[in-house]
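Dear Dr. K.,

Following up on our conversation at the group meeting, I've run the structure prediction for glucarate dehydratase from Haloplanus ruber. I'm pasting the input sequence below exactly as I used it, so you can double-check it against your construct before we proceed with anything downstream. Let me know if the numbering doesn't match what you have in your notebook.
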Amino acid sequence: MRINEIEIHAFDYAAERTGTVGGNWVYDPDSTLEPPGFVLTIRTADGTEGHYRGFAFTPPMVAQIRMVAEEHVLGRDPLERRAIWQDCWRALRHTDHLGVGPIDIALWDLAGAHHDASVSTLLGGGRDVLPTYASTTFVDDNGGLDGPEAFADFAAECLDRGYDGFKFHGHPEVRPDVDIAICEALADRVGDRMALMLDASSLYQTYADALEVGRALDDLDFRWYEDPFHDGGVSERAVRKLVAELDTPMLGLEHVRTGPYGVANSLATEATDLVRASAHLDGGITGALKIAETVESFGLDVELLLGGPAHMHLMSALRNASFFEHGLLNLGSNWILNQGFEGEPESVDDDGRMAVPGGPGLGVDIDWAFVERRRTGHTRIEG
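The predicted structure tokens came back this morning:
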């Protein structure tokens, strides 16, 4: 069995009542965003195929897929995922590896189709449903999640729906005082019944601000404090100093594209407590699994970045992952979670749990009518 065709269907999404402030997603009743997306299909000569639906950083992902497709993917046995992964990882070493994830996930989906087994089964996964937390859009000034009371009300609603935790993203205009006030309101309303988390998303520009917010989280018993520094967590010395000052665990490395190799360095120097990993951005299921097992070897936890079927299957096989991230959520807007798929695979049940799809491969079907209706481009690479 050999790969003889790679196909990329480009399209755009429709995120109604959603806008951006400084590139950060917020509720906006007067705006509809149309970010780019794509479906990558890898196909063999006998017609077996695997798919990946892309929703983030589409232009560099597609460009990098094209960079490695002919030399490192076409003509290969699709079941040799790790060998293909290693070759693509090296080939894209100058360009942050964003093309590796889509290729790897599509190959896992193809392998599931070939073996008539779910990716969870291929990974040895043992969970059919996943504990899940609600992850919000950023603080807005438009009447959505626009302050402490709105966040507390929404967290209470999420608690009633069965979510195990609640995380919000800070004010995009860099307002540590607002973020602290929201944290206090959340702790007061639901803190004894839900895990609470703050994702500063690299907003804070000074160490003093990051420390002030972190000390507030210590007082409020938050589950974790995520990516406070404006440099994206690259400065291990700065993060190590903050980790030593605070009791709240630091969740880091979301914005650092060094894979399991850089993760090992950060853990060895105690520059983070917990690690954020992504099948989408960190080299697919193979890359994220490498990261998770590296973190496990240090006796620590990994948390997967946002959702998607790949993360459902991967988390089913991870001992050291606490929650599935369901986001981005808001009172009045609908993010692009399920667009591009048939049905709504990323939905919680009445107990707030996320079900792992049970069909072959990723267990989801592409909504080709949606893709065709919103098509913006098409590429076929044959060999």
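Two things stood out to me. The chain has a mean pLDDT of 97. DSSP finds twelve helices and 16 strands in the chain.

Best regards,
J.T.
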